[in-house]
Amino acid sequence: MNVFLTGYSYWDNTPRGSAQIARPVIHQQAGGTGTYEDPITLAVGHEKRNGRSYMDYPAGTKFYVKNLQKYAIVEDLCGDGPKPQTGPCHSGYQGHDWLDIYVGGQGLDENWVDRCMNRITGIQQVILNPGPGYLVSPGEIAASGCATL
Fold first, then answer.
1. pLDDT by residue (tens digit) across 97-135?
2. Residue 129 φ/ψ, nearest 5 degrees
3. What's the whole-number average pLDDT of the chain?
4. How far is CA 106 from the centre of its chain?
5. Tens digit of pLDDT for each residue in 3-24?
6. Rounded CA separation 147/80 (Å)
7. CA distance 5 to 145
8. What is the pLDDT of residues 57-104, one digit of tens each?
9. For the purposes of burial, counting CB atoms within 10 Å of the CB of 133, is it exposed (0-12), middle (13-18) or buried (19 or more)?
């Protein structure tokens, strides 16, 4: 399937300057190397009803991002405020679901990480609920310069 992929970093996470995540599954903080066994944290849109958040994809859902050669796992929420359902993470982009992958970036220049994230932003092909065996380029996305194929 095709999705609109963006990146979020240590620098623009909520709270800012942290790797805190809302729905830990295998990580206690955003991270991962992108392998099947250690997928990278992914944030998805959600809506709030009666004080509870309902995620667009359940925590623990795995994706494989072909251009990044990385596995990712839903462990975080994308969109802040009292009505995140009115924001782009939940409503999507031009008919595509919006996924926000953690690129890392702690210890790297914030402006450089921002430019790096811009390189991966766009319509990307992903595989929902992939099995093991896809080609992987392990490591933090920002450390690789947000390189895509």
1. 999 999 999 999 899 999 999 999 999 999 999 999 999
2. 55, 55
3. 91
4. 16
5. 999 999 999 888 889 999 999 9
6. 28
7. 16
8. 999 999 999 999 999 999 999 977 666 677 788 888 888 999 999 999
9. exposed
Radius of gyration of the chain (CA): 14
CA–CA gap between residue 125 and residue 39 (Å, rounded): 17
Question: Does residue 149 carry a pLDDT above 60?
Answer: no
HEC profile of the chain: CEEEEEEEECCCCCCCCCCCCCCCCCCCCCCCCCCCCCCEEEEECEEEECCEEEECCCCCCEEEECCCCEEEEEEEECCCCCCHHHCHHHHCECCECEEEEEEECCCCCHHHHHHHHHHHCEEEEEEECCCCCCCCCCCCCHHHCCCCC
